[in-house]
C-alpha cells in the first residue's frame, strides 16, 4: 500500500492531531540538539559542577555528532520499515537514555554513552516525523503549511534555549530539565501510538549503502570539526583532517553521480535553480538563527543587566510571536512578489535584526537584544515558509524519509557552521580585547587571562568580593562585546552574500527567459 493513499483515510481533525504530535517531537528534538550544541558547553565551564570538566564536555558533543551524522540512516530506516514504527523505536531509545540520566547524573563516561543512544534515537525520529507530516497532508498547499508549522516548532526549540540557559544559571538543577524533556517524550510516544495511523514502508527500492555510508561518515566528521574548530583552532590537524575527510569523499561522490536519481544528491545538488536558491536562503537563515541564539546566551551571561530568567522570557516570547507572524506573511509575499523577491524580503528582515543587535552595549539593556531576535525571527519564518513552498515538490513520491533526512542534514550543518563561525569570532575578539585593569590584583588578573572560556572569566569576575570586582567585570564585558560584534558582522556578511547571490542569479534567469520581474526568477 502506498503512502499516497493515506490522506484520503484521515479526517481534518485527525490530520491536525497528528501534526500537533509531530510538532511536539520537533520542539523536543530541536531543543535537545540546540541545548547540547549551544548552551551546555559554556554552562559546564561557567558552573564548574563536575570533577572532570574535560571529559564532561564530550557529553553534549557526542550527542550532537551522532544525532546529525545518522540522519540519513534514519531516513533509510523510515522508508524501509515504516515511519511510525521507526518513530516509536527512536522515542524509546531517547527515553531510555533520558531516564538513565537520573542515577548517573554526576558521572561522565556513562553519560557520554547514554547521550550517544539518545543521539541515535533523535536521528531516527526526525526524518520519520517529517515523513509523517508529508504523508498525512491532503494537498500540496496543506503539505507546505504543515511543513512550515513543523519547522516553526523546530526553530522554537532552538530559541527557547536562551530561556532555559537563564533557568540553569539561576541554579535550576539540570536533571529537572531532563525530566521535563522525558515528560514531553512520553506524551509524544502516547500520541504517536494512539493518533498516528499505520505508515506503510515506501515501495521497495535498493539502498545505495556505499553512498549512504560515505555521506554518514562525512557528515559526522564535518560536525565534529565544526564543533572543535573554535576550541582547537582551525589550523589544527585534528580539525583540518576530519574536515577534509568529511567534505571531499561526499563531494566526489556527488559529482560522479550527478546524473543519477539518488534522493540525497537529487535534493542537495539538483539543477533546478528555483530549488537551489531556496535551499541557499534557508541554509543562511538556519546559520543566522544558531549564531544569534549563541550570541544572546553569551550576552545574558557576560552582561547581566537583568535576572537570567527575566531576560530569557523577554527574549523568547517575542520570538515565538514573530515567527507566527512571519509564517503568515511568507505565503502572502510569495503570491504578491514572487519567490525570489519574497526570499529577499525575509533575508532583509534578518539583516535588520542583526543590525539592531549591533547597538547592544555593556549596560545590559535588553531592548536591542529583544528587538534583534524578534525582527530576525520574523525574517526567518518568512524565508522558511517561502522556501518550503518552493521545494515541496522536490522530494520524489518514494524514499520520502531519505529526502526529509537530506533537508534536515543540510539545515543542521548550516546551523553548526553558524555556531562555529560565531563561536570562533567571539572567542578571538574577546581575548584580543581583554585588558585587565591595573587595579585588579595580579592573581585575579592572571586567572582571567589564562582561561580559554568566557564563561570561566565571568565566573571569576562574579566571585571577586573586594573593590576590584567592578573593574574586572567591566573589562570582561567590554572584551566580550568586541567578540559579540565580530560574530554579528560575520552573520551579516553571510546574509548579504546570500541576498546578492539570489538577486544576481534571479536577474540572470530573467534575462535568459525574457521575463520582466525579479519575482518571476
Give me some keywords for this one:
single chain, mainly alpha, 0% strand, globular, disordered N terminus, disordered C terminus
Span of the ends, CA to CA: 39 Å
- The quaternary state of the protein chains shown equals single chain
By DSSP, the count of extended strands is: 0
Q: pLDDT average, as an integer? A: 81
Tell me the Rg in angstroms: 23 Å
How do the SSEs run, as a string of H and E? HHHHHHHHHHHHHHHHHHHH
- Sheet with the most strands, sense and barrel status: none
The 3D shape can be described as: globular
Segments where pLDDT lies below 50 for 5+ residues? Answer: 1-5, 516-521
| Fraction of residues in β-strands | under 5%
- How helical, in percent, are the residues? over 70%
H/I helix tally: 20
- The structure class reads mainly alpha
